[in-house]
Amino acid sequence: MRYHIVFLFIISYSTLQAQVKVDLKDFNRKNGATVTANGEVLSVMWPAGKNKTGKLTVDLSARQPIFKSIGLQEARVDHPIASGLDPAFVLTVGKRDLISQNGWNIFFDKVPNKPFRSYNIDLEKQSAAISSVGTRTVISIGSLKAPGFTGTLQITLYNGSPLMNIAAVMSTDIDSTAILYDAGLVSKNAAWQQIGWSDVNKQMRSANPNTADSATNLQVKYRSIVGENSNGSLALFPAPHQYFYPLDEAFNLKFVWAGNQYRNMVNGYGIGIRQDLYGDRRFVPWFNAPPTTRQRLNFFVWLSSGNAATALDEVKKFTNNDRYTALPGYKTMTSHFHNEFIMKVVMANKPVPETPAFINVFKRTGVDIVHLGEFHYTAHPKGPDSLRLKELHALFQQCERLSSKDILLLPGEEPNEFFGGHWLQLFPKPVYWIMSRKEGAPFVTEDPRYGKVYRISNEGEMLDLLKREHGLAWTAHPRTKGSTGYPDKYKSAAFFKDEHFLGAAWKAMPADLSVPFLGKRVLDLMDDMNNWGDRKKVLAEADLFTIEPENEMYAHLNVNYLKMDRLPEYKNGWQPVVDALRQGKFFSSTGEVLIPEFTVDGRSTGEELSIGGKKSTVTFSLRWTFPMNYAEIISGDGQQVYRERINLNDTQAFGEQTFRRSVDLTGRKWVRLEAWDVAANGAFTQTVWIK
């Protein structure tokens, strides 16, 4: 049974009578922003880029909208972009299953199939504070309330850009809570002359606001909706990866909205972001909201003096146009796709397109190397031989046909046999193997058509195959889904300790809006494996099924930047790809943060150094789009994990910098690096080992 309870914005009578005092004790007038108070109206200005100043007028009186005005001054010309706006947040609260599987790491949960409730988050203007955090200015207004939740409205202004973040920071004491949120900006009357967005074909679309029309959910590209008037535009968009909780599919579920009375809950006309409560209709875990955690229900706002198309072009730069940017000396690799092109098209005798849509999707996204996970419960991994070999042959043929100088398509599977849990494999060339062997049959035979064929019956033979063919295996989605309990359960096994078992794969799963980074589950495992001492690696994986141009692919993707000067040709094999992974010569990224360099006393990832009782020099270079939040040097001594955080809240958007830190690594056995921006986008390196 499902309940939808609506709580409208409430301002109490007592609030009407009391003037809100503004706390400025943590505001630093030297950080570039200025604040002027006139009664209960605050005027805040911040340096928003070359010859630009952002202007925000906040009204703390009870009956008035929070944002009296939002504007941009450019070359001494004022651009009043919007007025009379309120932030709106709809919080949907469900129940997390913490019992049946693996606690907060669960993926196989179907939250919307259980009772849930949706609430407006109510604002009572009781307190206000303005603080300086590096080069950022944070306006905090209390309080926010929804049944079972309390919190604060936070508005963050970023020096150097006409960029704002608006967040309802909410906490609950209720255990086993899962949440979603929709958000936006609303006014009593339409604040815009026109609404603009990009459709999934990258064509600009527009509509004239009509306050008589009900809100419409829109399928867009770049996750953005723009309000435009004659003086400029305001683009509203979410954190590009954090806002999208993990699913098996990257379907575009109409993640923005525009119009009147959104969900019949939000009073007024607005634009905003939204979540589909039912996701891809498979496993739908929503976001974790553990007790007392501060969940940041947030969105970004970009101010532009141009029209909607101009504003959107400026927003697209934060994700490099939803493309993984090229980095000299590196090639991008993404892994774990159950596209099932072979079984659904080739083996089904359907017309085989010259260039399937999924190839174009990867090319447009800047992916150089794609590692597939075909035959996921769709084929004949255990035979009969005639079918298994035919399926593998079709896979190898299509991978060779579809590979080119621009993209390398690598055959791969998620075998899920012999080792326990789920795992992936990668050989440096086509290898024919069958996941069963009859008693008395040979381990390897020569087939007149396919050549060498292996038949595997146990984990020892699987490891032997990896060794003979110089392959790699690693745990897929460790500690969750079908790998719940793994690799921990086999960390002492001979195959795990062998160098041909790479380690594990990272994905931002589960999702938790209270942490300023993504993928805690596997980052914790990475530290655990480092302390186990087996020198394992962690590569990023996507673990997705359908790959179509209209999908919201970028939000659900991640890549590995492999140290490689050129892309191997399929016909010559891809040993350089396997070598880069095995040697740890790569870093992983959501795309917005890059780590072109990371060394410890001159040693890079995968290498070993001696520290000799002296402090070590950690050197790393970062490139970023969103302003950075922090970098963290993480090390361990075989038992404990140590963290040295480098605060980067003085950075501005679209920068690059090289950092050097002197770090005492005495007694440590390993060290690695993470870096995260203000939208929880980030990157992490592999490990440098210490003798």
Kindly describe this structure.
The protein has 691 residues and is mainly β. The chain is 12% helix and 38% strand. It contains 10 helices and 42 strands. The strands form 6 sheets. Strands 2, 3, 4, 5, 6, 7, 12, 15, 18, 19 and 20 form an 11-stranded antiparallel β-sheet that branches. The radius of gyration is 26 Å and the shape is globular. The model is unreliable at 1-17 (pLDDT under 50).
Strand share of the residues? 35-45%
The radius of gyration over CA amounts to 26 Å
Roughly what is the average pLDDT, rounded to an integer? 96
How many strands in all?
Answer: 42
Main beta-sheet annotation: 11 strands, antiparallel
Helix content: 10-25%
In short:
The chain has 691 residues and is mainly beta.
Give the topology, please.
Layout: H1 13-17, E1 22-23, E2 34-38, E3 41-47, E4 52-59, E5 67-74, E6 77-95, E7 117-120, E8 122-133, E9 136-146, E10 149-158, E11 163-172, E12 177-187, E13 194-198, E14 204-207, E15 216-218, E16 221-229, E17 232-237, E18 256-260, E19 269-273, E20 287-288, E21 295-304, H2 308-316, E22 330-335, H3 341-346, H4 357-364, E23 369-371, H5 385-402, E24 408-410, E25 423-426, E26 432-434, E27 444-447, E28 451-455, H6 459-468, E29 472-475, H7 494-497, E30 501-506, H8 520-532, E31 537-540, H9 553-556, E32 559-563, H10 575-582, E33 586-589, E34 593-600, E35 608-609, E36 616-624, E37 628-636, E38 641-647, E39 655-663, E40 670-677, E41 682-685, E42 688-690
Parallel strand pairs: 1-8, 22-23, 23-24, 26-28, 29-30, 30-31, 35-42
Antiparallel strand pairs: 2-3, 3-4, 4-5, 5-6, 6-7, 6-12, 8-9, 9-10, 10-11, 11-21, 12-19, 12-20, 13-14, 13-16, 15-18, 16-17, 17-21, 18-19, 22-32, 25-29, 27-28, 32-33, 33-41, 34-36, 36-39, 37-38, 37-40, 40-41, 40-42
